[in-house]
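Please produce the structure of this protein holding adenosine-3',5'-cyclic-monophosphate.
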Amino acid sequence: MRNDLTFTIIKPSAFEKNLTGAILETITRNGFKIAAMKMVRMTPEKAGLFYEVHKERPFFNDLVEYMTSGPVIVAALQKENAVNDFRSLIGSTDPADAAYGTIRKMFAESKSANAVHGSDSDENAEREIGLFFSEEEIYLK
Ligand code: CMP
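Below is the modeled complex.
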């Protein structure tokens, strides 16, 4: 399995606050190439499918409601060791725990409105990219 791809979402609150440019600048400055990108308004069905692994969690309904509350930016990112390097760049789920200089420390509001999503494994990166992009929408170096 390839290890040079990850998937991100710039979440509704970050999009609404016009942080898209600043977040993308941080991502590309840290060596990630944009392999695919678009703005979407997720349906509840799509968000539910995307977060399927969390469907038994108490926060699932709130998570789906939040992720469908406005437009988001979805992107596939390419870099060696993409999943781990991107997780380091975004920081802990809860911005209160995130290290200084991380995207969530700089741009997130809370555990749910935490600015960005990042894939947690190469398998999930492939699955998540496939949920949003067709082969002809992806450009790989
Ligand atoms: P994300 O990386 O998008 O993956 C799952 C999301 O669930 C996570 O970011 C958080 O935004 C959200 N999440 C995780 N734990 C909680 C929680 N305890 N309360 C609310 N939202 C949560």
